[in-house]
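User: Quick sanity check before I run a bigger batch. Here is a single chain. Can you write out its predicted 3D structure?
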Amino acid sequence: MIPICCIVILLSLAVAFFLEEWLPHKSWQYRILERIISILASIPSLIYGFLGIYLLVRHSDSITYLTLTITVVLLIMPYSIQSTQKAIQGVDISVREAVYALGASRWQVITGHVFPYALPMISGGILTAISRVLATAALIIVFCVWKIPIPNSTSPFGIPGIVVALLSSALLLSVLSSLVPKNMNINRIV
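Assistant: Done. Predicted structure follows.
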């Protein structure tokens, strides 16, 4: 699940920067993609967990990585894209204009100024998305264990220790994401 999360996060960063920096905001493509992303990001993670359980447990005797991947992608990508877009929009326009006035290319502006200023908010959104994935993974594991009982299990309610570890990690990442600064105070251009 960790490689899938890393790939999906990098892909969602690329999509968010494409939407905010290259695609015109008044185009019909931007409006459609923005609407789809906001709808998918607003769905609670519990619904994605139930979708994963339905695809994984109900219709198959074995867990396939394709259904796990689909669940993780649907859970991480919209929220990461939306939080990255808000972080990019939070970067002051004067930063961009000043760097463009000095003759920088679009790529130099994005990599040298927009991304570093937006990084704290981006990392907070990514931590929140990963905590949602861990909590949903714990839910899916619990339902899988309840469907396929583990013989000689001594854990309470038949819940393995990995679920406790996933939920603890989700809680820790959620607390860490709340500690990340949400507003960017850009007073100077570096």
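The CA atoms of residues 151 and 158 lie 10 Å apart.

User: Great, the batch can go ahead then.
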